[in-house]
Amino acid sequence: MALINSTYGKGRVRIMRVKRDTARHEVRELSVKTLLTGGFDRVFTDADNSAALCTDTVKNITWIVARENVGLDSELYGKALAQKFLDAYPQVETVTVISEETKWTRMVVDGEEQDHGFILDANGKPTVTVEATRAGMAVTSGLSGFTFMKSTESGWDKFFKDEYTTLAETRDRIAATAMEARWRWSRDPADYAAANALILKTMLKVFVSTYSESVQDSLYRMGMAALDAVPELIDIHMACPNKHYVPINLKPFGMDYDNMVLLPTDEPHGQIECTVGRD
Ligand SMILES: O=c1[nH]c(=O)c2[nH]c(=O)[nH]c2[nH]1
């Protein structure tokens, strides 16, 4: 019998960082998972804990690096955290830091942005994965559960048909999804937050302002536009449920069947996934 692979660390380490060097505070809330590999096989195979860093220590270091880097975006915080483990512990070979952000946006009262008031932005959680060795670090950013829709300018027609096909063609339907996306960086952009915002803005602009022949068609063009807009991107992966809204037939009640009253459904849903990269 052999230990094929292993890793360990601490998950769901929650931190709220408040940058408060001026009256205008900045807040960043994260849930962080850090996983280590290296000289830890004997912990599994020989009941030898002598090289094992406590997962409790991993949690402490997550907090300490947060205090040392209160103002860093998740990507650079993740890199700093990974570097701390590589610097401090020779037995550590790889560090994987995965963070998920709870977004707080600045409160606006009477048209004025508030210095220390925020509201929860519950639409999607920004994610970051840093995979680090002493040879280098790979950074992936993304978004989980980012939900958006449009009420027209979407269709699904001219598709393959056989004796099992029952779906009617349409050139006018709702398009809605809760997107899981991740994008890989070739190098640090000048500003991660600004670059991530530009990726989202660019993708949403394509989604809403162009007719969608299919979810596939929209995702591919959204991915290409994001790569065009942000040169530091290597590629972008999108996984999107097609959240179906089914028109309700009110003809039996003498009403038009006119796409105005629809049934929202979560399941079953189409599932469309792709990765768009550079040639
Ligand atoms: O955008 C779509 N892509 C599909 O592959 C598909 N299949 C389906 O039934 N409806 C849709 N819509």
UniProtKB/TrEMBL annotation:
EC class: oxidoreductase
Keywords from the named record: Oxidoreductase, Purine metabolism
Protein's recorded name: Uricase
Pfam families associated with the record: Uricase
Catalytic activity: urate + O2 + H2O = 5-hydroxyisourate + H2O2
Source organism phylogeny: Bacteria, Pseudomonadati, Pseudomonadota, Alphaproteobacteria, Acetobacterales
Active-site residue list: 10 (charge relay system), 55 (charge relay system), 244 (charge relay system)
Superkingdom of the organism of origin: Bacteria
Pathway info: Purine metabolism; urate degradation; (S)-allantoin from urate: step 1/3
Entry's Gene Ontology BP terms: purine nucleobase catabolic process; urate catabolic process
Organism from which the protein derives: Plastoroseomonas arctica
Keyword Oxidoreductase set for record: yes
Family to which this protein belongs: Belongs to the uricase family.
Function: Catalyzes the oxidation of uric acid to 5-hydroxyisourate, which is further processed to form (S)-allantoin.
Extent of the signal sequence: none
Record: residues binding urate: 55-56, 173, 215-216, 242
